[in-house]
Amino acid sequence: MRIPLDRTPWRVRGFLGHEWRHHRVWGPLREHDAWLPARVPGSVVDDLWRAGAVPDLYAGLNTRAIEWIADRHWAYRHEFRLAEPEDDQRAWLCLDGVDHSAVVFLDGVELGRVDGMFVASRFDVTELLRAGTSHVLVVVVEPAPPSEPQVGHTSAVGVHKSRMTYGWDFCPRLVHQGIWQAAYVEVTGPARIAEVAAVPSIEDGRALVSVAVEVDASGNYEVERVLTSPQGEVLDGLVVDDPQLWWPNGHGDQPLYTLTVTVWVDGRVSDVRELPIGLRSLDFYPVEDDALPYGVVVNGRRIFSKGWNWVPLDLAYGVPRQERLEHLLDLAVAAGVTMLRVWGGGLIETPAFYAACDQRGLLVWQEFSQSSSGITSTPSDEPAYVGMLREQAEQIVPRLRNHPSLAIWGGGNELQAGEGEPLDDRTPVLGALGELVRRLDPSRLWLPTSPTGPAFLNRRDLIAEAPDNQHDVHGPWEHQGLVDHYALYEAGTAMLLSEFGVEGLTTPRTLARVVPEAERRLPTRGRPVWDHLGRWWNNEDLVQRCFGGAIGDLTTLGLASQFLQRDGLQYAVEAHRRRTSRCVGTFPWQFNEPYPNAWCTSAVTWSGEPKPAYYGVAAAYRPVLVGAVCARQSWYGIPEVRLGLWGLSDTPIEAATVIARVVLLDGTELARQTFPDVRLSGSVPLGELRLPTPAECFVVDLKVVADGNVLADRRYLLTGAEDLSELLSLEPQIEASEQNGRLTIRHLAGPAAPFVRVLDGRPLGSDADGWMVCSDSGFVLLPGEERVLDLEWAGVHGDRLVTVDGLGVQERVIRCR
Predict the structure, then answer these.
(1) In this structure, are residues 719 and 635 in contact, taking their beta carbons and an 8 Å threshold?
(2) Inter-residue long-range contacts of 300-305, CB under 8 Å, 24+ positions, other chains counted
(3) What is the pLDDT of residue 8?
(4) Phi, psi dihedrals of residue 608, rounded to the nearest 5°
């Protein structure tokens, strides 16, 4: 029986040094003591902010004023009542995660220490709880241990703790502390279930669930294992005929069976453990004999890894944010994602995250919390560090291995011996972790780091020099410009592109939330607030160059930046997805962000609002695609445009028609070509579209049609000029209206609207709850066209406002009914 310790209030109080011992924090409370209300699970910084003790940490430069928090001890105090354990019962105080170390007291008795944020601690408190029914629990969280920010030396890291809050390119320095996972009392009989390992295997249409149970007991006991179907039917044994298979998102359903393990002592239930399990097989294959097996096979079917990189939900990651978590994962599902890479500078993710991924069919690539450091990126080989990480992994791996969503274990992010030399299991700590994973969880793939190489970077000169070395590679994270961006991704030969991105400005409502009004102007580079909120990813200079230096206001800069981010990221994904014979997965950087940055590579903002880039990647992950092989976006100086056309389908389409057009922004059609009776199975070349290079911007419009239905479409906005400045002088006339959750946008007059954006129109603040999600944003609307989009409102109780704007498009705010 688990008794949560979150039903009555907690308190928190800060101390310098060991003042907390001097004040005997476990003793009676005094009226003048400066205790503040707190939450568990939670975060120190969040508790202080909610209590009004520190300024809003999600605005301006405020985090710089509160970095001192991590240098103090923080005592968490909780008073609770509990019935005394019976004579044959045992009781434990359980702390599933304290960040990063603490001293624990119950009723003034020092129980011991907690060391390591990713390990759970248990203290036998049977006799203390038998002494009475009223109790005082105190957990003194110690100052955060020293570690390295993003730029430093990985060998100087001596703890297994999230590096992100020590200062990263997408997260300001505000080191995390707190009781960040569940706290509870567990009461059992004389025998306690210590561990359960459930391993399903599929063969000849049957599933066998092997269940190993470890029991902590001094006497005799019996173990019962019962499997229940997703419909609630109790099955006879652990062999399942005609099993309901668990599939990744987009490939089938995610039925979850329930395994119930019961330990009996002398005819009485002593302990019970229930866990959901998915029945599925998991295998991996290499693209070539000399490559690691990056290809994923589930239930005998090869699955292209439609991936994305995942970072912690929030800088204050200890605070449970179940609604935001589910919203973000629902966005991933809607985008066609099959796997999330949990980046090694962040977390060993939470039980809530894994449960939600199990339910949604999102495979997980979980990295241990180790990361590169910019200067040197090799982990410490000190025996104490290697031993500590091995000891923690002994607990971490069994805790996660029963989840059907878990697919890959990784040793960490971008660990290198030198510049561009990925590490392998010959590195002491990676060798230790690899051996442990293979022993405790042999069905999962082990990757020592990401990328695994042999080449580290996805870079044109490296591709040209050794194209066969592009196995698992990273980068770039920046838009490469109107010529080089498309050219790079056309040259790519990666088997697995596990981290790459395009930067962009955030949404207007986030800027209004975090950037002081006086600072919302150009230029954004070289000014303290803007530097604090994403200096690494501020590409204002490149955006200006791409638009001829003609951008004169922040709104236009945001639109132009988001146009490049969506276009650049979508092209990068689809170019590699097209190479089905070699590439087995793409993982854009990054899906979400833990802090409301002004500039970031994220596709979804901190508040959960999708940027147009999200929709670009979602389009590139559709089951049916049609596309063009573009050598460049600007064709200036090239007399003829030559575009190779291709189609792709995850499942065979026997007969389809592909229509390709080239249209000027005024609607004039320059070229049209039709490909009838096309069979799409995997990636298929269709032919070539050729025409003299126009002197202006033009749209390549592609469609796949079958039985009168449009199965796929794609538009590329290209130019025959040096830049895209023409887009800034357009004045298309559009109208927008909403009815019954559908947003209709009509082009009324003038040239094409080259980038139509749909945003949540509510201010981002305490009054704006929930989320608006549209079915598309950041698209081209040609003269005379109409688009009907679906709107979804999740957890929104007040006004529902939608903003429609775009390049050259006058902003409209629609109040939805």
Answers:
(1) yes
(2) 301/251, 303/248, 303/251, 303/338, 304/338, 304/577, 304/580, 304/584, 304/585, 304/650, 305/338, 305/339, 305/363, 305/496, 305/584, 305/585, 305/586, 305/587
(3) 75
(4) 100, 15
Structure confidence at residue 420 (pLDDT): 86
Q: Output the CA–CA distances (angstroms, integers) from residue 179 to 82, 161, 184, 318, in the order listed.
A: 21, 14, 12, 7
Using DSSP, state whether 594 is helix, strand or coil: coil
Residue 661: how many CB atoms within 10 A of its CB? 18
Total residues found in the chain within this entry: 817
Taking alpha carbons only, the member of 66, 102, 77, 70 closest to residue 25 is: 77
Distance CA 250, CA 624 (A): 12
| C-alpha distance from residue 414 to each of 368, 498, 573 (Å) | 12, 11, 21
Amino acid at 247: W
User: Residue range 663-687: average pLDDT?
Assistant: 95
Contact indicator for 43, 317 with CB cutoff of 8 Å: yes
Region 375-388 average pLDDT: 96
| Calpha distance 499→456 (Å, rounded) | 11
**Cα(116)–Cα(331) distance, rounded to whole angstroms?**
32
Q: How far apart are CA 669 and CA 476, in angstroms?
A: 35
Q: pLDDT band for 598, please (50, 70, 90 cuts).
A: very high
User: Which amino acid does the sequence have at 143?
Assistant: P
Question: Cis (ω within 30 of 0) for the bond into 55?
Answer: no
Please count the other Cβ atoms lying within 10 Å of the Cβ belonging to residue 707.
Answer: 7
- What pLDDT does 672 receive? 96
How far is the CA of 677 from the CAs of 644, 658, 704, in angstroms?
18, 9, 11
Give the SS3 label for residue 84.
Answer: coil
Q: How many CA atoms lie within 13 A of 515 on its CB side?
A: 27
- Edge-to-edge strand list for the sheet holding 295-298: 282-285, 295-298, 301-303
Residue 545: both structure tokens together = 């160059």
Does the pLDDT of residue 695 top 90, yes or no?
Answer: yes
Residue 42 is which amino acid? G
Query: Quick one: which of 37, 313, 337, 41 has its CA closest to 164?
Result: 313
3-state class of 511 per DSSP?
helix
pLDDT tens per residue across span 622-657? 999 999 999 999 999 999 999 999 999 999 999 999
Picking from 143, 102, 147, the residue whose alpha carbon sits closest to that of residue 370 is 147
| pLDDT given at position 768 | 59
Strands 152-153 and 697-706: what pairing?
Answer: unpaired
| Mean of the per-residue pLDDT values of the chain | 96
CA distance 653 to 673: 20
- Cα 788 versus chain centre, distance: 29
Other beta carbons within 10 Å of 690: 12
Burial of 330 (0-12, 13-18, 19+ CB in 10 A): middle
